[in-house]
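pasting for the record
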Amino acid sequence: MALSTNLNPILGVRERKKAETRASIQHYALTLFAQKGYEATTVEEIAVAASITRRTFFRYFKTKEGVVFDSYGSHAFIISALSIQPIALTPLQALRQTLCLMLQDTKPQDLEIFRKRLKLIFSEPALQVALSARLNNITDSVAKLIAKRTGKSPEDFEVRIFVGAFLGVISTLEYEWASSPDVDFADSINRAVAFLESGLRL
């Protein structure tokens, strides 16, 4: 997302360098995780591979787990994009449009990094537990926005089931995409939403 034009250009350069360093740390961490395994890889090894100090690592990520989940699902982006969808759209159409915007906003190389992170998450029990906690947070946030669109409570049974069903579908698609990189993720999302709209008729 572009920086506001009223920001000091020096800040823009600084922010870009920070983003590059963060991406570099993730790159080397994911490479080491693939080679040695998540549990066997230490923060010190990641720092050495990325040519930074251990202290620098913790300036960017609070934990080793944070390297994997940094921007997972772009929680903030999802909430922001969903909140501005036209009220005329059905909840399902609004969610579909939100995901389309998310994919359009993501560069191909970043999408590939996201796929590698998903593959790692689904292969590590400890990371799967952490994923569940994050999905609960996303569910709560999305439920609030869907409830606002429908005039219902975020705790309404049907709202929770609706959001849970949608996010469950997305999780299934992410798992398949992580396992098979040739899968067209955007096309899968459109097909899945169309299937949900049909009433899940088999």
